[in-house]
Amino acid sequence: MKNKTISFAISNKALQMRGILMLGFLAVQFVVGMTLDLFIKLPDSHPGTTGSFVGRSLHGYAWAVTNGGGAALTVHIVVASILVLGSIATLGFSIAAKHKAWIIASSVGLVGVWLSFLNGLEFINTNIDKHSMAMAMEFMIAFVAYGVGVYAGKGKR
């Protein structure tokens, strides 16, 4: 029984389901991000607006995740955190399955998610539009990567 569980965890079908799940979380992230962009103004001063990049990021993350910036920002940062963890797990399972298409797609997806996460933190802390634009572009890279993974992963390795 244990071998069947491990086998399923790294099967092509499981990778397809993980890819679809990542696309779903990315879609939710897009909707919440657009809500933030259009309807919510971040305060000019909050924990995370001063200090080094690492210090700002940690304080800004803690402020955002504890509802400091409102419910929409909290949801956005929680979904972003799930996406980071999910992208790492998807790459790990792709490597374990030795599935070339998924290794490439999930590697690119991880880079897109991670860079989007970092630019999102920087946007929270600086409110500079170039970080919002970078976040959107990197989101698109991740979205396309996981979409290609789902499409290309349908066939054999």
Task: Describe the 3D structure.
The two termini are 25 Å apart. Helix 2 runs antiparallel to helix 6. This protein has 157 residues and is an all-alpha fold. The model has no long low-confidence stretch (mean pLDDT 91). Helix content is 81%, strand content 0%.
The amount of helix comes to over 70%
Q: Could you tell me how far the N terminus lies from the C terminus, measured between alpha carbons in angstroms?
A: 25 Å
Order of helices and strands: HHHHHH
Structural class: mainly alpha
Unreliable spans: none
Structure summarized in a few sentences:
The protein is mainly alpha-helical.
Topology:
Elements lengths: L1 H8 L2 H28 L13 H13 L5 H27 L2 H27 L2 H24 L5
Features:
single chain
